[in-house]
Amino acid sequence: MSDGDGDQGNSKTLKITLSPTKLTSDIAKEKTQQQQNQLLIQQNQLLIQQNQLIIIEKEKEAKLAIIEKEKEAKLAIIDKEKEAKLAIIDKEKEAKEKEKEAKLAIIEKEKELLVEQNSKRMKLAHGPPSSSSFIEEQSRAISERGFFNTYAKHIKSFEINSLLHDNNHFNDNDDLDDQLKNCIEDYHRLTSSSNMLEANIQNAFDKLIVSLLSILNKDTSLKYLPTYKKKYLEGRAPDCTFIYKNVNIVIDGQCKCLQDVAVCLGEIKSSSTFITDAESIGQLLLNLTILLRNQTRERIYGFLINIKYIRFYYVEKKPYSDLYDFYQSESFKLFNDLSETSSSSSSSSVNMKTTSEQSKTSYINEHTWKIFLKFLTMKTEFYQYTALNINPNDYLYDDKYNIQRKLGDGLTSMVYLLKKNNNSYFKIGPPRLVIKISKGNKFIIFSKQLEPLESLTLTHSQQLIDIIQHLYDSFILHRDLRPENLMYDKSHQHLKLIDFGFATIYQKNEMTKRLPIEGTITYAGQKFLEHYLKFSFESSFERLYDYEQTFDLQCALNVIMYMTNSKIKNEINSMKQFLDTKEKALASLEYWEKLKKNDRNYFDLLELINKSKFDDFARLKSADFNDIRTAMKELFPKEQK
Predict the structure, then answer these.
(1) What is the pLDDT of residues 411-428, one digit of tens each?
(2) Residue 455 gets which letter from DSSP?
(3) C-alpha 416: how far from chain center
């Protein structure tokens, strides 16, 4: 059994072993299968590589999409910022337009009030000549008739006799002095022609007034100047100007400083011009208003005269207001016809349309001339001249010197150059002097000749820093540094700083001093200007400032930049177009900030000045000022060669 079984097993084995065809087929199949598997593997690898490439491409696309989205987002942000800026600009424009509309509405309202209320006449800026207003700008271009119709059409009346009642020089019951009569008769004889030109009347009136004031020298405080060809009042030439008799002034050319000392004015008209002529009245009132505004007075008087009549006027600033009122007296006849009685000559109702064809035979209306002579011999308080602290009894060297021109103009005083009279018999003394006349105190005479400066050299600028250092070390703050307050002493060849009207003294433990805002604004530093604008926009904000001890140093730097660079000077001067101080302060702040960004030398000097700003108890030392003087040389490259 076992053997048989063994044989069968061997037989089967032999069958397998002995089937070469089948074996070959299996091997072929296996190889084919292997090849197929390899192909599948290769295909899978290719698919994997393709998938990887697709993933990479998708990642690239995703990154590009992200970058594109970021770009779009940035562009969107930029667009939104632009839109926001444009919206802000539009809002600012809209606000400015509304402000303009509001100002125009105020102006229109003021004009309505001028018609409805006799008490409101003009809206003018009360302050130094640097301030302005709409009406001030209009007054420079408006015609005399237009001025009268716009601002003075509803002029008020006043009684001149009641204002002159304190004058006892001329009693109504007494006759005029013969000398005075002779002068008046000579005037009438010279002006009796019905077709006489205004210039001839002017010449005759000049002689009359000079003669009258000479006779009345002991009783009058006035001196007369014929100024009908002297355009000293913003391009205008009043016919008659009265100043105090102790003031001598050169009026050749256009002596603008004459407006500083003018006390009252007059206008002379021809016989063909009625005393009620609107253009003539407007001419006088416009001159009076400009002078009153420039001198910041409360009241100013004037008169209008032709060969037949005289009428008195005054312009007055309303209390606690920037409004002005206009007043006129009745018309007074200068000469009466022989057919008239003396009683009728004093009548208040005078026929204003008396023609030149009436009889030339006439006599003096003493009532009228007494009024005029009283007007010329009133006490100084009557004229209410307050521009400068001048008393007619003060000795202003008028017997030796004339005021030749203005050297400096500050908020508390003015400085003038005095030149020795050509006809002076005094040979002792310098040919020129300088006088500083205060608006509050008395005057000071300087024997040194000081000259204004149009520009600064390096030496001038370093001398200014020397002055500021001396004040700083002495704990003194000037507060009003501006080009007008810098003068040059020719005899010593040195810069001088004038007008200490707003100066203050620090205690040694004080780093700042809280004071009312006064003095310079345009040339102040950034911190001051920002504070000034803050209280300008917020009416409830306290109008005080904590003045730093380096305030003058900052102002000095800005003044130096202004006076050494013509471009900067032109830019600053262009700010004068702004009507109010707030606009000027805003323009100044923007300009100095722009200069700080664009001018490296200015930036470096500011950094030296602000060296102690991070230490409340630090003070600048001599070395710091030396650094400023050294760094300042960069502003003058031509002088370094």
Answers:
(1) 677 778 788 877 655 566
(2) S
(3) 22
Partner residues linked to 316 by β-bridges? 299, 325
- Determine the straight-line distance between the first and last CA of the chain, rounded to whole angstroms: 136
Q: Which of 209, 243, 240 is nearest to 392 (CA)?
A: 243
pLDDT value at position 511? 87
Domain 458-640 classification at class level: mainly alpha
Contact 341, 354 (CB under 8 A): no
Q: How far apart are CA 481 and CA 488, in angstroms?
A: 15
Helix (H, G, I), strand (E, B) or coil at 561: helix
Distances (CA, A) of 116 to 236, 268, 605: 31, 32, 57
CA–chain centroid gap for 59, Å, is: 66
Query: Is the separation of the CB atoms in 426 and 400 below 8 Å?
Result: yes
DSSP for 2-66, please give it.
HHHHHHHHHHHHHHHHT-HHHHHHHHHHHHHHHHHHHHHHHHHHHHHHHHHHHHHHHHHHHHHHH
Rounded CA-CA distance 124/132 in Å is 7
Find tokens 């020795």 and name the residue. 420
Per-residue pLDDT tens for 6-55? Answer: 444 444 444 445 466 767 777 888 888 888 888 888 888 888 888 888 88
d(CA 161, CA 374): 9
Structure token digits, residue 174: 């007494």
Segment among 102-106, 165-169, 194-198, 323-327 with least mean pLDDT: 102-106
Give Cβ neighbours of residue 219 (< 8 Å, ≥ 6 apart). 169, 377
Residue type, 142: I
User: Cα 87 vs. chain centroid, distance in angstroms?
Assistant: 31
Specify the higher pLDDT residue, 180 or 399: 180
Query: What pLDDT digit, counting tens, does each position of 514-539 carry?
Result: 999 888 899 999 999 999 888 765 55
What φ, ψ does residue 478 adopt, rounded to 5°?
A: -75, -50
CA gyration radius, the chain: 45
Distance set, CA 123 to CA 228, 284, 368 (Å): 28, 18, 34
- DSSP annotation of 196 reads -
Instruction: State the Cα–Cα distance between residues 482 and 564, nearest whole angstrom.
Output: 14
The residues, ordered by sequence, that sit 6+ positions from 105 with a Cβ below 8 Å of its Cβ are: none
| CB burial of residue 511 (10 Å; 0-12, 13-18, 19+) | middle
Do residues 566 and 573 lie in contact, with contact meaning Cβ atoms separated by under 8 Å? no
Contacts of 81 (CB under 8 A, 6+ apart): none
| Residue 539 token pair | 């009416």
Query: What's the rounded Cα separation, in Å, for the pair 532 and 535?
Result: 6
Residue-wise DSSP of 489-553: ETTTTEEEE---TT-EE--TT-SEEEEE--S--TTS-HHHHHHHHHHHH-TTS--EEEEETTHHH
pLDDT score, position 313? 97
- The model scores a pTM over 0.85: no
